[in-house]
Amino acid sequence: MTNIKKTFISLFSVLFLSLFVFLFAACNEEDPNNNPKSYNVTIEDGNWYDIRCSSKIVQEGSTVTVTVETEPFVEVDKVFANKNECTKGNDGKFTFTMPSEDVKITATIKDTDEILSASDGMYWSESQSELTITGEEIYYHYATFEVSFGTDFVNNSISSITNGMLYIDVFATNENVIPTDAISPVKATSMASNNWQATAASFTIDLTKIKEGTTTLVFIDTDNDRIISKRITVISGETNN
After folding, report:
1. Which of 40, 97, 201, 241 sits most deeply, having the most CB atoms within 10 A of its CB?
2. In the structure, what pLDDT confidence band is assigned to residue 16 with cuts at 50, 70 and 90?
3. Do residue 49 and residue 90 come from a single domain?
4. Residue 70 pLDDT exceeds 80
5. Does some domain include residue 7?
6. Within 10 Å of residue 66's Cβ, how many Cβ atoms?
7. Structural domain of 73
8. What are phi and psi for residue 180, nearest 5 degrees?
């Protein structure tokens, strides 16, 4: 009888201790002091912009500040914390209140106005604002664009990969309208007296490869760190076969 009683008391003690540990852990998890919890903030950068956040681990209820740095030919449209649009301030920064969950910050961008000229006189010496699709591969299915480099000439080294000027990059912000393979390599059209620097260059766009829509054509001189851009609208013509 004594052994049975001792066994019962021991079993009761174990159960009581287990219940105490469980309740203590539960209370600790619920935080009876109501201290705010912290959550993670992650960032999704884009091709032509970088996002910076005031903190990567933030307490719920705190205000988070977001800054987006873009290339000159694009600007920030909206910033989102998960699917919620952030508030834009007069200083160009964005803020949101940290929710009770992890947050992923994303942004949408849009093209800026044209950059028709850059430092030291670089400008579009020949360009078009409207292109028409053509399905005929004859001599007039190319549109020509030319840039003058002004007083800062550009090294005329040729890329072994593209066979175009190594220090020039040309692309459209919307490749669904003007894909990369529609743009020819950039070639020097005039040279400086030293014979190794270009004073102007040109490229063409294949009108059989473009699609309807609007995009910005970007021309970057990486030798002198300059950018110009041109807004292009593509209208329907003969459908590509």
Report:
1. 201
2. very low
3. yes
4. yes
5. no
6. 23
7. 38-111
8. -60, -40
Q: What gap in Å lies between CA 21 and CA 59, rounded to an integer?
A: 28
* Backbone angles phi and psi of 81, in degrees to 5: -105, 105
Amino acid sitting at position 204: T
- Provide the pLDDT confidence category of residue 136 given band limits of 50, 70 and 90: confident
* Mean local confidence (pLDDT), 208-217: 96
**Token pair of 213 as six digits:** 């829509």
101 and 196 assigned to the same domain: no
Per-residue pLDDT for 128 more than 70? Answer: yes
Residue 135 confidence (pLDDT): 78
Of 25 and 186, more confident: 186
What is the strand order of the sheet 168-172 is part of? 130-132, 226-235, 213-221, 168-172
For residues 99 and 135, membership in a common domain is answered with no
12 within a domain of the structure (yes/no): no
Is 22 part of a structural domain of the chain?
no
Considering the entire predicted model, what is its pTM?
Answer: 0.80
Task: State how far the alpha carbon of 162 is from the alpha carbons of 112, 150, 187, in Å.
Answer: 28, 25, 11
In this prediction, residue 36 carries a pLDDT of: 84
pLDDT of 2: 45
Q: Provide the token pair at 10.
A: 């021991």
Question: Could you tell me the CA-to-CA distances from 73 to 46, 86, 209, 216, 219 in Å, in that order?
Answer: 14, 23, 23, 8, 10
Q: What is the CATH number of the domain that holds 214?
A: 2.60.40.1080
| 139 and 223 inside one domain | yes
CA 40 to chain centre: 22
* Domain co-membership, 107 together with 124: no
What is the number of domains present in the chain? 2
How are beta strands 197-206 and 187-191 bridged, if at all? antiparallel
